[in-house]
Specification:
It contains eleven helices and twelve strands. α6 links the parallel β8 and β9. The chain is elongated, with a radius of gyration of 24 Å.
């Protein structure tokens, strides 16, 4: 179904010393990528859309207000985030069905990546509302291309669980994915997460990208044990962080007998039976059911009072 064109907007934006009137845009939902740090990393098409939209849906209106003000855009802002999404989504969909042009942005980068925008897009698609993508900056891709790790396949996990036990279990579940793993992490947890990644995944190549595109952009590369040791001895870093871990080798070691028992005993020293089985299974290539059964037996032999 064709969508009506909006009437020309009075908004304007200023970029690189040039002033341009915003042209009309079609009705529907416009998913707009915004800079992840450097305000220059935005397209003219994105600026024109933000200037011509009826509303800009922002994860944090204070953050987006800074971007719009930088380019002289006065389009009204409307908050859309994980805490109010369920309540306001129906009225936004009603506006879209009535012919409005709405621009969806996140705090930084491409919307829908670790934010609630995907539900709005999904319901808009189900209702036959036109959805357009305005591509641009992405922390995931920005980190991937500078990490020095394989880029032909990658898996974006987002944030790992905050507690070590659950985090190690999830890392173990990701261990055999044949591609580079990409994580977001908070500065205060990065040292602990690197420690858990090293404990579960071993001597894999990795990278930590911080403050990408900003003045203090930093990329540190090394094996997981090396990075874990470095961060353990330093103060918590500042800024937005992306962790990347290289894929497993072509041959995942497969142990059995005494060697397998030794690995299980080592894991049981710090982990529950369940988590130890997950970690050792991922590290050795052995079936998890087999490793779990052996872990239960070894825990019983050692009278270990470990939760299962």
């Amino acid at each position: 179904m064709s969508q009506p064109q909006k009437s020309p907007a009075a908004s304007a934006f200023t970029a690189f010393g040039l002033r341009a009137e915003a042209e009309a845009i079609s009705a529907g939902l416009h998913v707009v990528a915004t800079p992840i740090g450097n305000l220059g990393d935005i397209s003219f098409r994105a600026l024109a859309t933000l200037a011509a939209a009826d509303l800009v849906l922002a994860e944090d209106t204070r953050v987006t207000k800074t971007l719009l003000a930088h380019y002289g855009i006065t389009t009204p802002l409307f908050p859309y985030h994980e805490h109010n999404a369920d309540q306001v989504r129906p009225q936004l969909l009603a506006k879209l069905e009535a012919g409005a042009a709405l621009a969806l942005v996140s705090d930084a980068g491409t919307p829908l990546i670790s934010d609630p925008g995907f539900r709005l897009v999904g319901e808009a698609v189900q209702r036959g509302i036109d959805v357009k993508s305005l591509p641009g900056a992405s922390a995931v891709l920005a980190a991937l291309v500078v990490a020095g790790l394989p880029t032909n396949r990658f898996f974006f996990e987002g944030f790992l669980p905050p507690k070590s036990g659950a985090r190690r279990q999830r890392i173990a579940e990701l261990a055999t994915i044949p591609g580079t793993l990409v994580f977001f992490e908070s500065p205060r947890r990065v040292a602990a997460t690197l420690e858990d990644l090293a404990a579960v995944l071993g001597n894999r190549d990795a990278a930590m990208a911080r403050e990408l595109t900003k003045m203090f952009e930093t990329v540190r590369r090394g094996t997981l044990p090396v990075l874990a040791a470095e961060f353990a001895s330093e103060d918590a870093p500042r800024g937005e962080i992306v962790l990347l871990v290289g894929p497993p080798g072509e041959d995942i070691p497969s142990l059995d007998g005494d060697a397998l028992d030794a690995k299980i005993r080592t894991a049981l020293a710090t982990l529950s039976v369940k988590d130890a089985a997950s970690v050792v299974s991922a590290d050795t290539g052995q079936p998890r059911r087999k490793v779990y059964a052996r872990a239960v037996a070894l825990a019983a032999e050692g009278h270990a009072a470990l939760p299962r």
